[in-house]
Amino acid sequence: MNDIDAWVWWLVGAAGLGIPLVITAMPEFGMFAVGALAAAGVAGLGFGVVVQVLAFVIVSVALIAVVRPIATRHSTQRPQLRTGVDALKGKQALVLERVDGSGGRIKLAGEVWSARSLDNGRAYEVGQEVDVVEIEGATAIVI
C-alpha cells in the first residue's frame, strides 16, 4: 500500500466510523472518526504507518479524555433559566377568591389561576399572599 492509498483508506475508515455515530448517537465514534482524519492527514504528508497509527490513537484518546467529560458535565447540568410551570414554583401569589382544599382563585405572575390549598384543612382569605409549591394542570397548589 503506497502513501496515497493509505490516506484514502484512513478517509474510508473515518466515513465508516461516521455511520455508527449517526445510527447510535454515540459521540465516541465521532472522536474516532476525527482521529482517522488526523491519520489521513499524516499519511498525506508522507509519514509511515507507525506514525499514522500513533496520530490516530493520540487524537482519538485526547478527544475522548477532554471532550467526553465536558459533554457529560453539560448533559447532567440543570438549566439555569427555569421556564413554563417550573418558573412559577416558589413564586408568591395574591388570593382573589377564598382558597381551600376544594379550590379558589389566585393572581399569579399577572394571570388569574385556579388554586387549591396543599393542606385540605387550611384556607386562605382574599388579600392574603400565598406561595406556589406545585402546578397540577391549570391549578396551582399553594401554602
Automatic annotation (TrEMBL):
Coiled coil: none annotated. The keyword Glycoprotein does not apply. The keyword Membrane applies. It comes from the Bacteria. Gene3D superfamilies: Nucleic acid-binding proteins (2.40.50.140). Keywords: Hydrolase, Membrane, Protease, Transmembrane, Transmembrane helix. One of its GO terms (biological process) is proteolysis. It is found in: Membrane. The chain crosses the membrane at residues 6-23, 53-71. InterPro entries: Membrane_assoc_protease, NA-bd_OB-fold, NfeD-like_C. GO terms for molecular function: peptidase activity. It is a multi-pass membrane protein. This is Membrane protein implicated in regulation of membrane protease activity. The lineage of its organism: Bacteria, Bacillati, Actinomycetota, Actinomycetes, Kitasatosporales.
